[in-house]
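for the writeup, i need someone to sanity check this before i put it in the appendix. the sequnce is what the collaborator sent (i think, or maybe the updated version? ugh). structure was predicted straight from it, no edits. if anything looks off just tell me and ill rerun, i have time this weekend
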Amino acid sequence: MINLVLILPLIFCIVLFFAKNKTLNNILIVLYALVHSALGVCYLINPQIIQNNQYFELNSTNLIFYLVLSVVYLAVSVYNIGYSRNLSLKFNNGKMALYSMMTLAFVLSMTGAILADNLGLSWIFIEGTTLASAYLIYFNKTKHSIEAAWKYVFICSIGIALAFVGIILLTIATGNLNSLNYNDLINNASSFSHFWLNVSFVFILFGIGTKMGLAPVHFWLPDAHSQAPSPISALLSATLLNCAFLMILNMYRVLISANCLAYARIMLLLMGFLSLFITSVFLYRITNYKRMLAYSSIENMGILAIATALGGLAYYALFIHLIAHSLIKASFFLTSGNILELFETKRIKSSRALGQIDRKTAWLWVICFLGICAFPPSALFISEFLIVKTFLMQEHYILCALFLILLTIILYALAKVVIKMVFGEKSQEKYELAKQNIKKITISMYLPQGIMLTIAFILGIYIPKFVDIIIRNSIFY
């Protein structure tokens, strides 16, 4: 089944290249999402069903990342049914086929990065995500989308190059071990050179941290996420960043086995808090609601970095946060797609009185805000509570206070925008335009967000036993 999941999108791309049929585009995207999800479900039922191969495997370490990708991609594929119908009014069959092909290639690249059991192979697939998603960011061919695509390719290519240098330095640290397989690295880490291992981690953290969106190497993210079509923005924020984080996490597991964590923890804390600070500064006077969501992603990647550095109880919080953020942020970006369809602008001041125009979208927008800001019963409340508890247990009182202050500033900035957009005074011209465009919003553009938000809020009240087991098996201490 692993081979099927990796080969099927290539077959579908060949079919779409020759067929160029708008209906077939949606059918194949949804079909691949179902097959992708089936692999995760089969593993949950009986791991022995899944036959791993020499280069790819589904295991307790990457299972959460794979399941999150499957759920978000399935939701995005359903949303894309209505979204692509509106998109096809602007573009011809060839352009829409290319959009679908690159979407499949993008998901394939992320899947390969998650399933790869080799650091070098993960690096190749992470680079593949850049090549596949660059066209999708550029898709609308506006001045800003072209600029965003070039910035994305340029900055991420530098990051990938730095990560490659880190891998070379890692081979120096490993001595006579001629393998980049994660299990081999972890099992032999005690004999590695600590100096070269630390230097290697710095290069990999900064290089792959670029793809993850950690400050100060985050500059591509606000532009790329805001310019991509909304379904692609959801995948970029809710799944691509996770793929990069998994590679950093696997490298961190090597450092744990080598008992060489002190320097890595300092680096993760610095980049994590800097990500929160950058978000709090730029959100305070934000004017574009999709850029607002992009900066929120930088914040949450910073929280994941901080949780990794803290260890202990924060490891459990890390995986809850990763799941909940992916579900809520994907919902947020998909809902922003509805708003963009209504108002035909990303400017906050031109997208007001949402509650009077489309109550379902308005409610989704408000619930997404409550979820991402960790209002109970959002699962993010549980994760952030556990992180704060870990700060206090480890007597990092100043860091805990700084963490809470930055989160409060970010909450205020998000609340100000959401309240203005839902309840603000309407512009008559935009109000009339939105009333005309409301017919573009179909049930498939509401349902996926509703399901993902429901899951995220249920996890804040009750974590099912099988989810708890998956999380505990993923913890690497």
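Residues 293-477 form one domain. The two ends are 30 Å apart (CA to CA).
thx in advance!!
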